[in-house]
Q: What sequence folds into this?
């Protein structure tokens, strides 16, 4: 039997509180998981996840803390109606994403990595226009340091529970 | 500025799914945190939490994996109307609880430790009688191994986000 897993970065409480102030109204996944940056999702058996956990430990050791900068609210339209806090791509984040996707089982990403924190989704076209129109000029500038990422699994009700934390540069 | 922190054990997905099947109907905290065993809650500043995190690391190293056994549904009535999965006290769990409460800042517990996973709360007396009456004979026997605990913090909306995982007996 396989379970669904996710590898994510949780931003600071300040950013999570900001994102939740939007998600409460615009994101039906609001109650299922705190605000996050997804690095990978995959399915795995119990045996596979033990191996993945070991691999993530060694990946974490080989990376250093890096800065994560949020500059603006953006949208994936016309691909889909997801509104998000756009994270500036940095070498530290890109390299972590790349190594995780190369070394952890599961499908390779089909698209370029656009790091983001979702604040609205499953909106109709009209809702999307209204919400994005009112949020796109918001001043959401913020910078912080990322020093860890988390491995989560999904419960039957669709919510996510944390299995393990990996600290960058730590043994 | 202080934040609210919690130290908890998340049981296996199987137990979390079971607990959520009850919590969905009977626990208004259903969406705020996955099913858990609380070891301690406390308030701390950023500086204090770094120290607490180091202390929790060394506590985790000094403890070994232990078995956690659930035998029945129970209730804290008449103290309050909380219905829970009762966890059999074991030396491993008691010692971990005791060391965390001795070494981590915050108030010492006023009552004996009754390890439990809440499945219903904030029920009226009538609701409590109905629900507990129908659940108290449920066959919820289950045993599993605990090999980790987690440090969480509370967001503005009342939900909890995981800060760190501590694996028992690991460096």
A:
């Amino acid at each position: 039997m396989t379970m669904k897993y996710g590898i994510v970065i949780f931003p600071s409480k300040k950013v999570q509180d900001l994102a939740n102030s939007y998600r409460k109204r615009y994101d039906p996944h609001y109650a299922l998981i705190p605000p996050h940056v997804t690095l990978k999702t995959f399915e795995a058996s119990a045996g596979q996840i033990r191996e993945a956990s070991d691999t993530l430990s060694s990946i974490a050791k080989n990376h250093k803390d890096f800065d994560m900068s949020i500059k603006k609210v953006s949208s994936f339209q016309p691909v889909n109606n997801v509104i998000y806090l756009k994270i500036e791509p940095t070498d530290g984040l890109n390299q972590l994403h790349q190594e995780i996707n190369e070394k952890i089982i599961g499908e390779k990403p089909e698209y370029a990595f656009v790091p983001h924190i979702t604040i609205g989704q499953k909106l109709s076209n009209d809702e999307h226009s209204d919400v994005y129109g009112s949020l796109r000029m918001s001043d959401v500038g913020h910078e912080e340091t990322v020093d860890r990422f988390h491995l989560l699994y999904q419960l039957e009700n669709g919510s996510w529970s944390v299995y393990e934390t990996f600290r960058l540069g730590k043994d």
Observations:
- The mean pLDDT of chain B is 95.
- The CA atoms of residues 73 and 135 of chain B lie 7 Å apart.
